[in-house]
Amino acid sequence: MDHRRVQRALFRMQLDPAFASRLRAGDVDASRGLAPGELRLLRSAVPSAVSADRDGKRRAQLLANVASELPLSLAAGLCVDGFPASEEFHGAVCEDGSLPLALARYASRCSRAQPAALRALIALESALARARRELRSSRAPGLGEVALAPWAFVEDFPAGTLSLAARIREALDAGLPPPALVLASAPDETLLLRSKPASRLLGLREVEVEHASLALTALLRAALEPTTRDALAASSSSARAELDPVIDELIADRVLVSG
After folding, report:
1. Closest by alpha carbon to 14, among 46, 37, 41?
2. Is 9 left (phi over 0), alpha (psi -120 to 50) or beta?
3. Do residues 124 and 165 touch, judged by C-beta distance below 8 A?
4. Which tens digit of pLDDT belongs to each residue from 198-252?
5. How far is 146 from 123, CA to CA, in rounded Å?
6. Judging by DSSP bridges, how do beta strands 207-211 and 227-228 pair with one another?
């Protein structure tokens, strides 16, 4: 018997009564991955004991903890009540995955019919949550090469996303209602997300966000995979002598890395 697997299944039963009912009824999908002895143990648990949650405090605490990285989206109207019953929640628990990232995927899926401003905030906060935990996978630059740092991300968002996020953050900090959810009527904006080293073991990384100009975006995307300074100069139609100081500054700022 795998006790971790039993614990994960019990956690799912506690947070999702419908899943608990399906598992007890022998539903194939609910029972998948569990050994016969594990199923017998779970089905023998007293239903009222499994579902006990006075005033819904356990469920509310879980949602508050998991949604703590989506404060702007919550202020803008995101509802996460259905997360414990979602495929994203169950998949993350089964695979020991990140629940905040699972919630971000759930929020993105459930917001497809919501206003564009809410979708933009969810996309931004989801990207920040990923950048706190993940590094881009790419080959390390060789001698004489440069590349976008594994902890740097270049992503497109609807125009006005970062400005809207800043206004909502300011309102929340001041204890005021969120401002009108209005985006700019302009082409998409590109943001540079750059994480710092984690401050403690297994801690999350702090992430800085800034706008990236068209020229900077083109340069950084040309360096998604290791390349040479000459190749970057050729792709940007800039003279190598003009581009070298820019590349040096980006390396000093930990946006690019060199081999």
Report:
1. 46
2. alpha
3. yes
4. 766 557 899 999 999 999 999 999 999 999 999 998 888 778 888 899 999 999 9
5. 29
6. unpaired
